[in-house]
Amino acid sequence: MAGMSVVLTAALSLTAFAATDWKNMISHGTVKPWLFIDEEYANRNRFFTQAELDGTVKTLTDLSADLEAEGIKFVVLIAPDKEDIYPEYAPAGYSLDGGGRTEQLFNYLKTAAPQLNVVYPIDELKEAKAAHTAGADTIYYTSDSHWNEVGADVASRELIRKIAAVSGKEYEDFPGSFGEPKTRQGDLQVLLGLGSDWSYSTVSYPRTDSLGYLKAYELYNEENCDVVDVVTQNDSPVYDLKVYLTGDSYRENMVPTMGKYFSQFTAFNRFYFDTDFLLEDKPDVFVYECAGRYCGDLGMIAGYSTAPMMLPQQLKVNVDIRAERAAAKEAAAAEAAAQAAEQVIGTRYQG
C-alpha cells in the first residue's frame, strides 16, 4: 500500500443544514470568544424515560450480537458536550449542576448492559483540561462546537484503549505532539455571521508527530464543508486491525490518531450510514460515535434500526459513495500491481 494516495471529492447538496436558523440556537458564553449550542443544553436536561433507556440497551445489544455473528467487535463512543468540559464559560442561563442525560445513559448502560463496550471519556478530558495537555490552553474550540485536535487525541486514545482490550491486545500509549496554535474561525462563529470578527476566532493545534498513514480515500461535501467518508491506510501501524468508525463531526479530528494506530481506519458520516457499507468492508472493530447531545439516537440507529438518516434529495449519495469507493479501490489495486511489476523487473535487472 506504500505510495497509495487516491483522493476523491464530490459536491453534495445538503440544504437542510444551511437553512437552519442558527442565530436563535447559539448563545455567547460568559467570556469572549466562547460560544455554545443551546440544543446541547436543552437536550442535556431531557432525561430518558425507563422505556427509552431499555430501548437503547436492546438496540445496542442486538447490534452487538449481529456484529459478533459477522466476527466484528462493537464499541460505542459518546463525545462529551462542550459545556460539560467547560461549564465555567457556559452562558449565564445554563444550569449545569448535576449530571445530564448523557451521564444518565452512560451509568445505566454500565449497570444494565455491562457486556457492552461503551467509552465516555469525560473524566480523561477533564484531566487533560486541568493539565493543559500538550501545552494547549483548551481542548475544545472556543467558538466551535467540537473538541480540538488535542481533545480528539485524548478521546481517541481512550477509545483505542478499549479497542485493544476487546481485541485481546496490550494497550500502547503514544500521545500526540502539537505545534504552535494557529488562529481559525469556529463553526459557531461562522453560523452567527461573526466570520470577520477575529476576536471571536478560536485556535487549532497542528500535529507535529509522525503519523505514518496515507489518506487512501476521501469524499467531501463542499457545499456544507462536511467530510462524508475518509479511509486511511498504514503500513506500520501500532495494531494490525481494520477499524470502521461511523459518527458525527467529532470524528473528523480523530483521524490522525486513529490512522496512526491502525492498518486501516474508516471515518464515515453517520448521517449517511448504512450497514451494507460496514459489512462490505468487514472490519475487525466497528465503532459508533455520537456527541452527547445526540445520544438519544442510540436507541434507534439509522442505517441499522431504520433506513439511513438522509433527506430524499440525498438518497443518491449512497450510490455515489459506492461507485467512488469502488473506483478508489480499483485505482489502488492498479497502483499496487504496477509497483509489484516494477519490483520484479528491478530484481531481474539486478540479477
What do you see in this structure?
The protein is α/β, with parallel strands linked by helices. The chain has a domain at 48-127 and 161-170 and 212-350. Helices cover 37% and strands 18% of the residues. It contains 11 helices and 11 strands. It is globular, with a radius of gyration of 21 Å. The two termini are 26 Å apart. Mean pLDDT is 85; it is low at 1-19 and 311-316.
Task: List the keywords.
351 residues, alpha/beta, 7-stranded mixed beta sheet, two-stranded antiparallel sheet, 11 strands, 18% strand, disordered N terminus
The total of helices stands at: 11
Low-confidence stretches: 1-19, 311-316
Largest sheet: 7 strands, mixed
Radius of gyration: 21 Å
Task: Record the SSE blueprint.
Layout: H1 15-19, E1 26-28, E2 35-37, H2 38-44, H3 50-69, E3 73-79, H4 82-85, H5 101-112, E4 118-119, H6 122-131, H7 149-166, E5 182-184, H8 187-191, E6 202-204, E7 213-221, E8 226-234, E9 239-247, H9 255-261, E10 262-269, H10 275-281, E11 285-291, H11 316-350
Helix pairs in contact: 6-7, 7-9
Question: Can you describe this structure in just a few lines?
Answer:
The protein is an alpha/beta fold and about 350 residues long.
